[in-house]
Every structure is written in structure tokens, then in C-alpha cells.
Amino acid sequence: MYDCLQASxxxxxxxxxxxxxxxxxxxxxxxxxxPGFESFVGRAPIPIRHGLTVGxxxxxxxxQAEVIPMTGWTRALDWPWVPPSPNMPTLDTALVYPGMGxxxxxxxxxxxxxxxxxxxxxxxxxxxxxxxxLRVCDLPGVAFRSTWFQPVFSKYAGQVLPGVQLHVLDxxxxxxxxxxxVILRTLRDLYSGELAFRPxxxxxxxxxxxxxxxxxxxxxxxxxxxxxxxxxxxxxxxEGVNG
Length: 243
Description:
Elements: H1 2-9, E1 16-18, E2 29-32, E3 47-49, H2 54-61, E4 66-68, H3 91-100, E5 120-122, H4 130-135, E6 142-149, E7 161-168, H5 176-190, H6 200-205, H7 209-216
Parallel strand pairs: 1-4
Antiparallel strand pairs: 2-3, 5-7, 6-7
């Protein structure tokens, strides 16, 4: 959408968005994308979890965008889930993705090739210490259990992996980005010799600050700064965005 919108600005053509729900509600979480780290998975400086609909994002990117708003929708409203991708099969997948998608930038399987992508992570070096270490972190709205799985494609395809499955117990309390950072911190502390990072991590995070913090032994939760006044309230079509 962003690319099409930018192309329309140079042609004088109208750009119209038929708005759609944001399944994650209106919570805002995560850092802002930093200049120099723009990519296909991060086009503009917005938080990882931005809380907006696609129509509101279009208005944020350009005041010339025309949006046909939804009627009768609120950010707290649930609706039947239609998978937009084989790797986004359920609403729970979407709920965990803003944080757990970061594992695509590591040598840990993010669950692609299973029926629970992004809700399940695993690697050959995981052991029985991991789940207890995550449970004592007392993260809101989520529970952890040990599991084993065998991806049919992507990382470690065909291998049986020890892993962890996330169970979202309270959608309103659950913080996907914070949860992922705590998991990454725990993996770093337990498996410093095995955990490795890929170039994708910087693009997914929107800067190199997360990778550098993990390598340096710093607490990545310090990176969860308030996104600040990044959004003009005039772009909002529905109430309920909450940073």
C-alpha cells in the first residue's frame, strides 16, 4: 500500500483505500523505525505495533489518501478470522507476530513449517531450563509450555526440535514485543554460545539497537521507549489508540 501510495503522488491519480480491521486492536508498542533501516518489511518510521487500520496508516503517510471507513467497527471488536497467509492461520498467530516475528532474524525456528507458526519457537540447543526461566519472568497475558515439533520446511526442516509454545491467555494484557524481548534476553543468557543473529533482525526491528544490546549483554527492555508524539490525531478514524 505504501509503495502504491507513493507512486500515485507522482501521477496525480486518486488513491482510495477500503478500510479493514486491525486484529491487534489499538495498542502501540515497540520502537520507531530509524532512518537508514527502511526495507520491504518496514517502509516508514512507525512503531512495530502501530495500532492503526490500513486506512489510518494511509492517512498518516499522505493526507491525499482517500479512505472509505468501516461502519460499526471498534478496535475491541472480534470477528471471524480469515487466514491472509499460510503462516498466519489463526488470530493467535497475528497477536504474537509483532514480537515473535523477530525470531526470523535469529537461528531459532519461529515455527514456520508447523501448524503453529510464531506461537512456537525451537532450536537444537534448547533444553529443560528454558521454560522455567520464562515462567518466572511473570509476563502478562501469556503462558509457556515445553513442546517438541518437526518443521516440514524453513529452518531445521525435517529435524525434531525441542521448543516452547506460547499460549495467549489475555489478549488485552498480552504485550507481544515485550514478550519477545524477554525471550530473546533469556535465550542470550542461557545459550550465549549457540544463539546467533541474522541480518534480517535489524530490518525487522527497524534499527541495529536490539542486536547490539543483546550482543553487549544489555537488557533489551530498555529499548521499549515511548514512541512519543509520532501520530497526528487527525488521521484517526476510530477511537482507541493507546500507547
